[in-house]
């Protein structure tokens, strides 16, 4: 299996970091845009799509209103996906930064998937 590469995506968001963080770090928030059903037990999020596909991700690290990092339990130890919230200094705009891993030929498809998911998130946020 080819080694996956880290890639980073950035999206400007029109909402406060605290509201955005709720959508990135809680089962109720994640269920609004990321998966059809989301549960959490002992810092492990259980995501399901279409009533069947189930994936589990453990919260590795987090800081309120700043970032949350997840590790898919089926992935290698050094792979993760992360949501980071930053504010630009000049315009004070909120930026959502997503870091994820994919094999090089799949990065474009993964980027499109994230674009779709983030579009759904923005719809829920009223952006």
TrEMBL record:
It holds the Pfam family START_2. Residues 1-126 form the START-like domain. This is ATPase. It comes from Panacibacter ginsenosidivorans.
């Amino acid at each position: 299996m080819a080694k996956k590469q880290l890639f980073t995506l950035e999206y400007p968001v029109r909402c406060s970091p605290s509201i955005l963080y709720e959508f990135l770090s809680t089962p109720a928030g994640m269920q609004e845009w990321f998966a059809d059903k989301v549960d959490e037990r002992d810092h492990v999020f259980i995501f399901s799509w279409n009533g069947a596909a189930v994936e589990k991700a453990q919260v590795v690290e987090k800081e309120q209103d700043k970032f949350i990092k997840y590790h898919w339990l089926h992935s290698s130890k050094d792979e993760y996906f992360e949501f980071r919230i930053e504010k630009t200094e000049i315009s004070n705009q909120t930026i959502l930064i997503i870091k994820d891993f994919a094999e090089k030929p799949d990065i474009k498809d993964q980027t499109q998937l994230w674009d779709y998911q983030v579009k759904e998130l923005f719809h829920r946020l009223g952006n």
